[in-house]
Amino acid sequence: MSLPFLSLLGTLLGLVLLRVPIAFAMLCAGFVYLFVSGQDLGLVVDQVMNSLFNAYILLAIPMFILAANVMNAGTISERLWRAADAVVGEARGGLAHVNVVVSLVFSSMSGSAIADAAGPGLVSIRMMERVGGYPSGLAVAVTAASAVIAPIIPPSIPMVLYALNSGTSVGALFLGGILPGILMGLALMATVVVIAPRMNLPASPAMAPRERRRALAGSLVPLTLPVILLGGIWSGIFTPTEAAAVAAMWAMILAIVVYRAFNMRGLWAVLASSMTQSVVVMLLIAGAFLVNYAVTAERLDRALADLVTGAGMNAWTFLLLVNALFLLLGCIIDTGTLLLVLVPLLMPTVLGLGIDPVHFGVLITVNIMIGLVTPPFGLLLFVLGGLSGVKLSETVRYLWPFLIALVACLIAITYIPAIVLWLPAMFGF
Hints:
The chain is mainly alpha-helical. Helices cover 78% and strands 0% of the residues.
């Protein structure tokens, strides 16, 4: 490893320890690499601007962020909750089942675990605490565990980032995430079935037939969003990037015209919040492009591939090590950073070992999402703790059975590739 690259790593680590935002830390580290290696600093503009302008797929990210924010502000979360309660709420531990079902449905609209947790997740916590009398820690634990499904079932912002750096089809990745996401939801619901009698969890009161019909009818219009979104992608009517714009437009029509959930001032607040979040992501991507330039210039990706091949490591052992690495790093490093920096480094090894890039993309997305709820540093635990006022220790107490269920799904997805690849193959990918 050369002096310029060691300088990059030292600068990056030092700035992160000083709590400099990771995007600025990567940009500064890139400058240091170019300076120490004696290269033209104008390469910063070349690498960042050309990479951003040539990555048409990046337009999907601000559109998916906008769609999720509009849905959270437009009463759609509450409507989905009532419909899910009408379907599964009467079972023992019914509100916990409802929590998972709402996340499964909302995941087909948002593409972001944070959006799921902050929108329908907060609704779920309030209902479980106030209506069902569930322990606050359990309500947050179920919400955090189910929110990780959001980026697995399409649309998915992390999968868009993976596609950007791997050249994999976004449509194939979206299809590949459906069965793993459903499997994770079923595993969480099975966990609720197991713990409900032990914890004496209540069942919701039976809903009157008329009220049930009204709740289900109220969800029909919001449920057109995933139908339009995914149907349009897989039928070839529009690309995943265009689908993101369609999703944002349809969410705004529902929230403003159909439900009249907010006025122009409310719309501006949603747009401003979405722009802020999008800028954060784009700055992160810009910094990652510069770091990736250094990785490529140093040929570290090829060196890693040669090392793995020379050690005689097979695909299954490599995937086991990748799972351990991403589960660990997913607890402490931002999702975008992992996908933007590590994916280009690992892809030559992945292809050299004959691992399907669609399988690998879904696999590491699942890994990183589980890392978001792994104590003690899981980001979702802190987000939900801050929003709900529930202490981390109280949440972790109830979280372990759900975490075990998610890891069991990860193992199944790792060593049974058909769970990921069956649907893409059915659609010709």
